[in-house]
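Handout, section B. The chain below has 254 residues.
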Amino acid sequence: MSAPRAARNGPTFRELAVQALSSVEHGYDLLAPKFDRTPYRTPDAVLDATARALRPYGPFGAGLDLCCGTGAGTRVLREVCGGRVAGVDFSTGMLARAREAAPEADWVRGEAHALPFAPGAFDLVVSFGAHGHFLPAEHPHLFAQVRATLSAGGHLAFPLAAPPRPGTAPYWSLLAFDAAMRVRNAVWRPPFVMYYRTWPLSGVRRELREAGFAVTLHPLPELGSREDGSPRCRLVLATKLPDLPDQAVSAGTP
């Protein structure tokens, strides 16, 4: 996702402003009819690179697109999964668009904080562009929910872009966006949680390991390199480790 701006044939500035002053759920219900024509929709290049990186670990059985929106991520699941393909989101408007685009998938309304699936229901969970909707304090419970949904040895995968270098225009742009959102949420209700700087790689790796995952990183070379040769984007692949006694007890506890 990128900082809000109008796109050709997409939502107007006024429509984006109304969304930003709504709750997260209602805001996405409003945006759903035009969502795929905004910069928020995950680019096909990112989806294709993710599928390529996942193929050596498959084929997988059942796959879930977490916070699926209009369902773009299920394109990856259909390429690498041989079983059930499902998407979960809390926006009825986004799910309606997803059903229109891919009626063969299972579209489920639900919260990421309380996933409505049986333990071990999926072999692969992917997520695209939803990270900013989760505050750091929510990460442990989110990862515990995903881990409980995965089968033994199952995987959670998501692309993660390298942060812009301090002092560059993109750095100041994201900093300004997050600052504006914090001011908005301090003075306006309901809150709209969407931040760009709450998902640092080092912290997320640590939290995933603490939640019972082994974590590996896979460059996505199709998406380019930075000046120092490091990748602009990596795939984070978290593999479920066997249960520890305390994890088995606490996985469903907020």
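Note. The CA atoms of residues 6 and 12 lie 6 Å apart. Compare this with the example in section A.
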